Amino acid sequence: MNRIVEAPPAFEPLTAKNRAFAAFYPGDRATRQPVHTVYGGAHLFKAETPARLGELARQSMALYGRDAREFALGTGFVSAEALAGLSAESMRALYAQDELALRRDNPSAWLAVTVFERVQHKLRTEAVEDFRIDFEDGFGARSDAEEDAAAVAAARETARGMAASSLPPFIGIRIKSLSEEWYQRSARTLSIFLATLLEASGNRLPDNFVVTLPKVTNDAQPLALVQLFEQLEQQHALAPGALRLEFMVETTQALIGPDGVCPLPAFLKACQGRCVGAHLGTYDFTASCNITAAHQVMRHPWCDLAKGMMLLALAGTGVFLSDGATNVMPVGPHRGKDLSAEQQAANLRAVHSVWRLTHDNIRHSLIGGYYQGWDLHPAQLPVRYAASYAFFLEGLSQAADRLRNFIGKAAQATLSGDVFDDAATGQGLLNYFLRALNCGAIRLADLEETGLTQEDVALRSFAKILDARRSRASEG
User: Fold this and answer.
1) pTM for the predicted model, two decimal places
2) Cα 21 to Cα 14, 18, 308, 424, distances in angstroms
3) Domain 30-57+126-326+338-377's class?
């Protein structure tokens, strides 16, 4: 008879270590992540700014992406060869006649029309997902009186936007860094902004409000911001933990400290559960690497290394990761209404060239596991959504088949009492559809291919979906 061997005393410390590990790495947050953050100077912000950006984005698309074919080729998510012999009118007719047949017979044409339609809808309904009122680079170094006045004005406009329901679903402010030069100014700006906002809004914060902390170089900086949060929450009778932050990685020292250790976990620990995101500041970071201005681009190898280190250090913590922005603006060289045909053609070529660059940058981020990035100009919004939608839609059928089969096998194992130990893969497949659904790439009707119901999607958890199905089966 085999003896049962009890765990030796040496195993006793495992409980504390395992629990500490689980606390620091709780897994992905089961909430929506915006696909972008739009930055704008605090002195320019108005309650109507998000709507105005959407209007300008639609104007850009109307000029340079007038139909599905032009938009697909102009942004580059479909090749000219794939649409050879097809006009925009013929693609639209085939799409209207039988969308499923077009998807089966010519996936590229289906993708072009579908992305075009859904981007147009997105720009009409929610052109901006996340906006950051910027008191740092987008605002600059100004006198104390100017920044005080801008903080008051921006806060009042934010409150006015809350009352008018004109704010995007995510919003916040970026203060200056907490370096020796700026920490007093940063604390003052945040205090003034928050006091003014709460007074004007009836002591309410906007949904998903966040404070962005730039150029973090040591863990004392996020810790100091957390301590300021605590004081402000007490001062204004806000619930503990109401104020959240995201920090920016913009220096080499944020990745490798003087002891040779990556400081990012220490940054996160200093945030004391308040951190919701970490953003790479592409151009400040490459400058800190001594990269010359001409080569400070999103796909520079040093940026890929930084993003890889951020992902390795913060994966599983629930912190959303964001890439930076393409800093070449999609604007034509000729301005005015009475342009010649030659000038209009030159504008079209220029904008399409930058759109394709932006698309390639965004797709590079998506492939690397970065589902959020920065946008700096309204004409970047059409390509932001085009790149994101094409990324998810082009693999829709294959992903749907995998998830449907995976859920079926997992549910069968659960019902038969077998052990199913690959829930992480199931959650990864589910996350594909949750992200696609959140950003507008797919719609609830598209989920029919996966076998998921609207109730399943609302659970946002593969394990919970299996538990719910098991409960329904046992009740039946």
Assistant:
1) 0.92
2) 10, 5, 21, 17
3) alpha beta
